[in-house]
Design goal:
alpha/beta; eight-stranded mixed beta sheet; 42% helix; Rossmann fold; 13 helices
Amino acid sequence: MISDIIRKLNSYLSFWIRDNKPVNRSKDKLIKKYIQKNISLNKIIKKNLKETHNIFNEKLYLLLQKKDITNFLRESFIQKMFFLHNRFFVYAELRELQKNKRWSLYKKLINEDIVGNPIRYFLYPDSSGNRINHVYHLNVLSRELNINLTDIKKVFEFGGGYGCMARIFSKLNKKIKYTCFDTHNVNLLQFYYLKHNNLDVGFSKKNDFFLNSNLKKVNKTYETKLKSLFIANWSLSETPKKFRKNFISIIKKNEFILICFQEKFEDIDNLKYFNNLRSKLSNKFEIKILKNKFYTGNMINKHNHYFFVGKKL
């Protein structure tokens, strides 16, 4: 595909940056052994996913089977879904972070890890385009709702990617309680990434970073308190509308909301959907829908993207 070729060409912009150090081999072997015992395509409930994500999960299953995940962030299909690298609009996001009074904090948050062998951002080698992009989203949340990110004590993330946002919150608050809800094999990828970053991650609610793909388990066990946040970065907006209904009650349990979405996904009009959701939640939340001023898709697929941010009244 043309988009894959463009992504590959963009990666060459970082050719001059020194490679990431390798991860600890003995630790890597143990983590991969655990993953091998637990991978399963049968745990993927296809009706809960759109076609794009069903294809992705099949590819991820094959990658996990081959045990070839040390450099997973160099895989084109993973970059397409989870890892934004050398895009020029990211520099505009970085400049906004640098001009912010919280830059000393943001500078620590965007410092990239070695796990997965990420492509370093060619205009700021200490980070990656993806890490900068994630921290910029948190900056929007903090700015629009006037909240201190370090005060957040609990996070529920719908679709946690490879664990980048969870890793950022581990730097914001060492006592954070974090839930990643995703498909089973994506949870295993998150396990690989977060375990290598020395975090208390696992498939039990007792873990600080709780990985879960069981919807019934979530609804029964998820409890919230003040300073809790619901996050969904282009994940909720890429699932069938019927499946989204299961998470409205969880959204309502949190004090803050951060959802990023594209105007349309496959056959879904997301702008209409999230405007309706704002109306439904307006009696309990102050909600803003803001156009993303920097990200407008790519040269092949131009479309608007939005932030849905909310704070409990």
